[in-house]
Protein 1
Amino acid sequence: MKPFSYYDLLDAFTLSGCPVCRLLGLDAQRFLDSLLYENTMDIGIQQGMRASRGLCNTHAWQLLEYKGNAAGIAVLSEAVLDELITLLRSDPGPAASGRSLRGLISKRDGTQTAAALDARQGCLCCGLLDRTEANYLQTIADHFSEGPMQEAFRVSEGLCLPHFRQFVPLLRDPALLRLAIDAQARIWQHLKDELEQYLRQSGARATDEPMGAEGDSWQRAILAIAGDKRLFGMDGSRKKR
């Protein structure tokens, strides 16, 4: 019996963009929706929010898109601030230690306070996405020897660069690895050809030929190279903070 993620992936391959990015985006939306509408008063969730010092920058700002649930955001933020205030007030600080003026301004004192404020665990939403991301990529790899998965990959827009890099080490069969590499190379070559066509048409004002599918190729190229804007950090990996 195939996992639900198998069928989700086959469906996602028929849509634009990286299928793993698309499913992770939906997972994040579901998590944040549940967080605000069902779990704001959950003790375990509040403890996790305290330990993680709130959500990461990306997912914290994404909360603001959920209109009409300011109270839920307030409850979770209050728990995090209560934790931070408690930590600051429980820190005796350099003044209470009777140190000299040089000790008061030493780097070590500030470092200790900063360490106390550091997150004890990662963003709750990122943690979920880490698990589901690994599941999606492993599911593709586990079923890549099968015709439906190969065909879905072949006719799709492929994986984004960050996810393709994570995917290829999961293929232990050299023949399947070569198949995946060839398929992804053809997908990227097609996109590159569209970019070249876009540049020819946008640069040559004399032509009256209308833009076709290549009209948004420059946007699709960003997604293909960088992945979804809400999933990866500056170095191409997802940050917990």
Note: The CA atoms of residues 36 and 72 lie 5 Å apart.
Protein 2
Amino acid sequence: MKIYDRVKIKKTGVTGIIVDIRHTSGAVYTVEGDAKDTSGGYPLFDCKQDDLEILI
């Protein structure tokens, strides 16, 4: 997986785009959700690779 890949978080079904990848203790992917939250911003989710599914 790489930056700007479209993904789905398997556990929640939330879709979004990978906006950051950290390699501190294994790869952690930051996903920006597609839908705005109640504050009007796009939520960020930290996920491991096994938590994500690539969308085509």
Note: The first strand starts at residue 6 and ends at 9.
Protein 3
Amino acid sequence: MDSCVMLPSRVTVSANMSAKAVLLVGGAQKGTRFRPLSLGLPKPLFPVAGLPLIEHHIEQLCECKALTEILLLGFYPSEEFTHFIECAKKKYGIHIEYLEENAPSGTAGGLLRFRDRILQPTKGKETEYVFVLNADICGDLPITDLLDEIKRQPDAEAVLLTTEATRDQASNFGCLVVDPKSKKVLHYVEKPSTFVSITISCGIFILRPNFWPNQLERAEAEAGGNGTLWYETDVFPQMASDGKLYALHTTRWWSQTKTPAGALYANGHYLRLYRVKCPERLAKSSPQIIGDVFIDPTAVVDPTAKIGPNVSIGAGAVIGAGVRVRESIILPECVLEEHCCVLHAVVGWRSILEPWTRVEGTPIAPNPNVPFAKLDNKPLFNGDGRLNPSLTILGSNVRVLRELVILNTVVLPYKELSTSKHNQIIL
């Protein structure tokens, strides 16, 4: 798939100015909320709107003309990213490299450990600014605005991107109190137990090189040098006290992708973003294509199938006659035989739905009547031990026999379903 034309940067870039970006991709951990979709693939590479999650970040970062290098930092085995990196380097014409941690060291520990590599000059240019992004967020990111803002704030060692949440939801995020005139962060608390502010961190920030000696090394010394540092708890609160942390507020779309529901929600928004920035990526509207739909060029879709809105169909998928798909992600090499119905679901790689099957989940979205409401990333089970209503998720290589109904169910890979399932986890 061709990349869309990048918008020109609004930043006036000096000849010797250089910026880098670090994507914090994390690593495989027990009990991840993204399973079963992350069992055979690192979560940052999960395809949303036809692209791996972190490729959306890379694409938006490349709008910054000062950017010389993108570094992926995490503790997944490096070989899991090799193919993606080689393809992305060719596609975007920028150096991309994976830095592998030996073990989890917190969100800031890896930044400290790889300090010399991150700040290393590139093409004879000193590194003046470093973007840092969590991989499990998504949005229409104002990358060049962040660079503009830190240039306007000479005292800032870091500028955080912030947005707004509801009063009830704000405590699920890092909360900030910001001076509205100076944009200086006066107070930062990660997931406070009592209400602090409706201004929350987006998990994206830009740093100056003096952040490393002035903040990370200090935080490491205070933590006893154990090698584990968290910018949310060990670094940003003290920076706010020191007056070195600033904020840039955005009202653009932003969300998290910690769960499959978050990925499906992001899918719809990225498709909507395509409509504005690169409409050639979307399937052409027709009586059978409703709203924003991405169909990989190698997928085969019967002309009688009705698709959309907010649907992505992956490479090599086969969609049969009379199929209906809405608000769903169909992953590569799936086969949906004639007259299947898939609603609010993710169908895993190489899964097969036999004729007349219905796979349906519960719609998951923020409250549309509440401004700035965010998606609730609920756990699988409620306080009574019952399964929360959610998407239906089929892991890879699942087969659903004909005329069955699969409702609000999570199915692990390599299962064959011969009876209907409602509100279950199929192990």
Note: The chain has two domains: 18-256, 281-366+385-426.
Protein 4
Amino acid sequence: MTNEIVGDVVIGIGVAIVVLGLVGLVRFKEFDLKLLAGAKIDTVGLIVIVLGAVVRSGVSWLSAKALLILAFVLIVNPVVTSTLAAGARRRRRGE
């Protein structure tokens, strides 16, 4: 019972982080700023939501799978963000 309440609160905080990040995506005009906001949504929002799901479900295979997915995203997200930023930089230079 307590795990479910704590997990729900943490998931709610993660959803709030994602919503605030989406406001940044809509508000910012430049690609670099939108990329920054999107990367923060992916990283911080996903970490908090997955940790909330792990707390809520307890020790189980679901928790292990969620943590593996989180690890994969944490490895891939900086690579994708860096590649997008480099492509935008090349496009601005006219290469």
Note: The chain has three helices and no strands.
